[in-house]
Amino acid sequence: MRYTSHAALSGAQQENAALTTLKRSRATDLLDLAHRQEPLLVNLFAHVRARIRLGSCSEHDRALVAAAVSVLLWLVASTIVITNPAVAAAVLVGPLLLMRKRVTLRDCAVVAVLSSPVLVFQSIFMAPLAVALGCAILAFYRALVGKMARTGLLPVTVFFLESAFCVFLRSLRKLTPLTIDSQMVALDAKWFHGLSLAVWHWSTAHLYVWLPFETVYFFLPCAIVLMLDGHERQTRGLAGMTMLAMGISAVPIYMHFPAVGPAHVYDSLGLFVESLAVCNCTPSLHVAWTIFMWRATPCSRRRTALGIFALLTAISTLTTGEHYVIDLCAAVPFAAFWVVVYRAASALKQKELGKVVEEPAFALGE
């Protein structure tokens, strides 16, 4: 057995004590330095925060910041439209929002400049979309500056959220290399007598049927902007956040039931092939979102129009071959759940706003 001498033990303890004292002194020096620099850091942070807040800037500075943000968004949006114009339907509402006020020749010139990249790199058939993109960016700038309502932010915001959601779903496709479309086709044949494939084949054989429903299918982002534009300011953000939550909550279901739709798993000869398309079948978010918009819109006229649009969208999901009938069935309870959540949250928010309004009147009555 080995024994450590008392002298060696006391020497080690002294060395540890010296190291502890040195560390404490260094920590104390750092704290003192931080306390000495604290006023400078606080003032610098307050200065930066005051400069980046648009409400506290001058009108000139606010216009410069809004112009810089709009140019950046224009560059990114132009690139997205050039590479994938199918996701740009949300900006089609841009001209409608912009024409709520008088449009000058300078506005037309700005829209022409903003539309130029898409017109240069795309065909002439993309001209309406290019003009709509320019109008949406100009409306975004005016909303930032305060020269039009905040609804001018909606087209560009919905456009970018839709693009980000598509990119996110495409990145998740690598996690589900195999799909269950063969089982979905068999289930559709057993339960619905092959209705999904029959409707898709019939519509593709009749272009006058396929093209209008294809337009309805890709018109969903535009309908979302119009629906949010019809909401009051207190509920607009809640409706938008609910639709965003619907999209996020559907992702785990997509990963658990990966399917891409009949249009992506059959080639021109009618042979079944594996596809690398995005897995976003069950439930159909097109149907779920349109049902939610139909039930959550306060305006009766828009609610009727959105009800018709929801029915046409449900048909278009089959004519385009993007979904099976069971996807539409799964979308109904999914949408109903989020409608209940939205109404409960909206009632709670209205109750809180009512308390805020009633309390000063009650105080005056005292």
Report what the structure shows:
The model is unreliable at 1-6 and 355-366 (pLDDT under 50). Helix 11 runs antiparallel to helix 12 (285-296) and helix 12 packs parallel to helix 14 (325-365). This protein has 366 residues and is mainly α. The chain is globular, with a radius of gyration of 29 Å. Helices cover 75% and strands 0% of the residues. It has two domains: 57-164, no CATH class; 176-366, no CATH class.
Index terms:
366 residues, mainly alpha, 2 domains, 75% helix, 0% strand, disordered N terminus
By DSSP, the count of extended strands is 0
Span between N and C termini? 88 Å
> Class by helix and strand content?
mainly alpha
Judging from the principal axes of the Cα atoms, what is the shape?
globular
Low-confidence stretches: 1-6, 355-366
Largest sheet, in brief, is: none
Share in helix: over 70%
Describe the secondary-structure layout.
Elements: H1 6-52, H2 59-83, H3 94-98, H4 105-121, H5 127-145, H6 154-172, H7 181-191, H8 195-205, H9 207-218, H10 220-230, H11 233-256, H12 285-296, H13 300-319, H14 325-365
Summarize the entry for a quick read.
The chain has helices at 6-52, 59-83, 94-98, 105-121, 127-145, 154-172, 181-191, 195-205, 207-218, 220-230, 233-256, 285-296, 300-319, 325-365. By secondary structure, it is an all-alpha fold. It has two domains: 57-164, no CATH class; 176-366, no CATH class.
